[in-house]
Every structure is written in C-alpha cells, then in structure tokens.
Amino acid sequence: MPLKKKAISYDPGRVTPEKIEQVIEETGYQVMGREEAKEELADEEERKIVGVRKRMLWTWGFTVPIIAWMIPEMIMGTAWPPRLIFDLGMIILATPVMFWLGWPALGSAATSISHKSANMDVLITTVSYVTGFATLSLPIAMLGLLHPVIAEAAMAFSSVSVVTNANRLRKVDIRPS
Predict the structure, then answer these.
(1) How far apart are the C-alpha atoms of 124 and 105, rounded to whole Å?
(2) d(CA 164, CA 113)
(3) Which pLDDT tens digit goes with each residue over 128-169?
(4) Reduced to 3 DSSP states, what percent helix, strand and coil does the chain have, rounded to the nearest 5?
(5) What is the rounded distance in angstroms from the CA atom of residue 131 to the CA atom of residue 129?
(6) Can you tell me whether residue 3 is helix, strand or coil?
(7) Of 119, 124, 125, 160, which residue is the least packed, with the fewest Cβ within 10 Å?
(8) Half-sphere exposure of residue 172, counting CA atoms within 13 Å on the CB side?
(9) Is 31:25 a contact under the CB 8 Å cutoff?
(10) Cβ atoms of residues 32 and 17 within 8 Å
C-alpha cells in the first residue's frame, strides 16, 4: 500500500530541492510545500476529530439504553424481560457499537496483531469478543442447546485471553518519546 504522505530530509550539499521535486513528480506523486502540508494536515486532523466525535455520539446512543436496561438487574437482581430476551437485546444493541462504530479499533487491533505487537485496541477488542461470546453461551446452555461444559470453557477462555493480552501489553513501551 503506497504512502499518502512522506516527509524527507536531505543533504543540501549533494542534491537540490528542485532535483528532489523533479524525481518525486516523475514517479507520479505530488510535491507539497511546507505551509501547504501544514494546512492539509490541520484540515485532516479536524476531519478526524469531527468523525471521532460523531462516532462517540452514536456509540452513546446505543450504550445509554444498555446501561439503563442493566440497572434494574444490578439493583433488584433480576433481568427484565426474561433472561434470554434480555441477553439477545443486549447483543442487538451492542453489535452496531462493536462492528460499525468500533471498526477503527478492530482494524488497529488486527494490524497490531499482524505485526506481533500489542496495543490497547488488541486488549479491548479481545476482551469484548471473548466476554461477549462467553456471555452469549450461558443462556444458550441454559436452554439445552449447548453443552454446559462448552459454556464453561468459553468463560475460562475469556479469562485466559484477557490475562494473556494484558501480559502482551505490559511488554510494550508506552512512555512518551
């Protein structure tokens, strides 16, 4: 995948800026001046911020009903409506957050895993998926559609996965450069 932007440094005693521009343009790329690049970078940053803000608002739009729906269960200890409907409703509300609004985090996690490194997106994505699968497997096992041992294994895998990824993340140098 070609780079969209690249900054270069050079030795003025060996090559002129005009020669660099000529070579870059001959390869099919556009040369931008320093001020032009700063303006474009500022515009791009602003677009990213607006996009993140919109994604955050949509995420809250799906998450607030989940929180409101969970409060009676936490306070009274009972799920309303019945447990299976409750769990399916949670999954239906959480799916757009994970797959549509969380797509950038999924992409970042996939890239990080492919480079055999870890970042916070790997931890968050893994925890979300394995915990979600484990949570989904319990009501299915209660209905008799899944062997309880498989649901227990999903819960155990969830815990092991979280600890493993936390250890991978611990090895990453997160100090500011």
Answers:
(1) 8
(2) 13
(3) 777 777 777 877 888 888 898 988 888 888 788 778 777 776
(4) 75, 0, 25
(5) 5
(6) coil
(7) 160
(8) 18
(9) yes
(10) no
